[in-house]
């Protein structure tokens, strides 16, 4: 893959699935650019179009509209074969053959990918499956299958990794190790795109993300940029002698309010534009300590929904196909 400022880009991309008299508009007018060497996340409800976007990037399906490029090459075009070899992919539902062992599975994928078979055993070690390498996959737990899926995605030292819900089934330690591995890969220049429904695991780890809903990108940027856009309030935890805390009442900047108060501790809610004014007020209040808490990515997601920037889907319709 060529060194390119944008590892991948979508311009006005639409994808329509047709069949049995039904049309599903899975993606609609998607513009997206992921800089090389970054960790980028796709977030969205069930059926938002995340897996469809991955399949378009791999050339497994063709867009109905617009242009998809990876490493500067048009997907499916003349230069794409070479680029494709540099993409590692973990699908949402990876099919594994139960009778094959872990290392046999890896050799199978290595042959498919044209990767060197000597990579297989070290990659299994890297994902913590070294001891289980010769056991049939039949006996693997869900998390072990997911690790095997990750290992096969790493074959051939990909420059771009596409990981569709990679942490499904992983325990908390495995999730931590998985993201540590992604950090190491990113440090070596690999571009990584993950989809996930687990917002808490993304918020401290990704460089940027796109929020998809009903086939459209409704917001994209760093977690901090989305925080600022969502206008969710900050929370400030304060502690000090009760008199110092009580003395704040009636002299807080406009819009700042007590959420909870209990003797030596209190929690304040503060609109972002008032943050510095509040800190100035608190600095002279004789407090012992304060902690400013940013809204979580989950708060941001629901805040954008409340602000009308992301559509709110009723639980039943969230899984329904979007009719064109
Ligand atoms: N092969 C297909 N034929 C018809 N419709 C499809 C096909 N693949 C996906 N769709 C539809 O396209 C829409 C987007 O699906 P997609 O799998 O891309 O969503 P997703 O965001 O990955 O969802 P999830 O979080 O549930 O995995 C959905 O309405 C889905 O039903």
UniProtKB/TrEMBL annotation:
**Which keywords appear in this protein's UniProt record, sorted alphabetically?**
ATP-binding, Cell membrane, Membrane, Nucleotide-binding, Transport
Keyword Nuclease annotated:
no
Q: Which CDD domains match?
A: ABC_DR_subfamily_A
Write down the PROSITE patterns for this protein, in alphabetical order: ABC_TRANSPORTER_1 (PS00211), ABC_TRANSPORTER_2 (PS50893)
What range(s) does the ABC transporter domain occupy?
8-239
Cross-referenced SUPFAM superfamilies, in alphabetical order? P-loop containing nucleoside triphosphate hydrolases
Q: Which residues form a coiled coil?
A: none
Q: Does the keyword RNA-binding apply?
A: no
Which domain of life, per UniProt?
Answer: Bacteria
Which is an annotated GO molecular function term of this record? Answer: ATP hydrolysis activity
Protein name per its UniProtKB record: Copper ABC transporter, ATP-binding protein NosF
Q: Which organism is it from?
A: Rubrivivax gelatinosus (strain NBRC 100245 / IL144)
Report the gene name.
Answer: nosF
């Amino acid at each position: 893959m060529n060194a390119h400022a944008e590892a991948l880009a979508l311009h006005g991309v639409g994808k329509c699935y047709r069949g049995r008299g039904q049309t599903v508009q899975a993606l609609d007018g998607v513009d997206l650019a992921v800089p090389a060497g970054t960790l980028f996340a796709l977030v969205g409800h069930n059926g938002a179009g995340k897996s469809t976007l991955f399949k378009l990037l791999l050339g497994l399906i063709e867009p109905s509209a617009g242009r998809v490029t990876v490493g500067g090459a048009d997907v499916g075009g003349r230069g794409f074969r070479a680029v494709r070899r540099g993409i590692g992919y973990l699908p949402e539902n990876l099919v594994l053959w139960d009778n094959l062992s872990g290392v046999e599975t890896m050799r199978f994928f290595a042959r498919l990918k044209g990767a060197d078979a000597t990579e297989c055993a070290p990659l299994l070690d890297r994902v913590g499956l070294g001891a289980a390498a010769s056991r049939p996959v039949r006996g693997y737990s869900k998390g072990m299958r997911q690790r095997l899926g990750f290992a096969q995605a790493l074959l051939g030292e990909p420059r771009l990794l596409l990981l569709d819900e990679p942490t499904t089934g992983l325990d908390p330690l495995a999730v931590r190790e998985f993201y540590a591995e992604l950090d190491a890969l990113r440090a070596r220049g690999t571009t990584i795109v993950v989809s996930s429904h687990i917002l808490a695991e993304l918020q401290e780890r990704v460089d940027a993300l796109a929020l998809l809903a009903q086939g459209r990108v409704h917001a994209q940027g760093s977690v901090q940029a989305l925080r600022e856009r969502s206008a969710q309030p900050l929370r400030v935890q304060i502690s000090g002698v009760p008199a110092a805390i009580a003395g704040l009442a009636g002299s807080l900047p406009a819009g700042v309010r007590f959420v909870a108060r209990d003797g030596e501790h209190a929690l304040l809610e503060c609109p972002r534009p008032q943050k510095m004014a509040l800190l100035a007020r608190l600095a002279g209040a004789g407090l012992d300590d304060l902690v400013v808490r940013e809204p979580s990515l989950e708060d941001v997601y629901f805040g954008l929904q409340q602000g009308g920037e992301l559509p709110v889907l009723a639980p039943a319709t969230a899984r329904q196909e979007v009719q064109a």
